[in-house]
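User: I'm writing a tutorial on reading structure tokens. Could you give me a worked example: one chain, its sequence, then its tokens, then a sentence or two explaining what the tokens reveal?
Assistant: Sure. Here is the example chain.
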Amino acid sequence: MASVPTTSTSETTEQRVVRLLRRWREETAYLSSSTQITSHPAYQELIALGAIALPFLFRDLEQTSDGHLSKALTTITGAHPVPAEACGQVRKVAEAWLRWAKENGCQW
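And here are its predicted structure tokens:
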């Protein structure tokens, strides 16, 4: 009986986060409702990954300035670093989160 080579098809956390972010963005790009955008199953799966996903989410935030990640980051971390006057301003939301991440020792 010939042996079948085994290959690992399991994703790394980074690969999973990248895949979920891509799917979430592709499937919500046409939506204007932030509630619909953040209730998407891929977004919810990112949240469910918890703290292990943070380095990859912060790296993505640094590259994209996607303010919609704020809800996921708040849910995962419990932090609220975005000042009220920055709400709705994606770049300022991203900057507030990245500043918080650096101040709290997060590395990506």
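What the tokens reveal: Helices lie at 13-28, 34-38, 41-49, 54-64, 69-77, 90-103. The radius of gyration is 16 Å.
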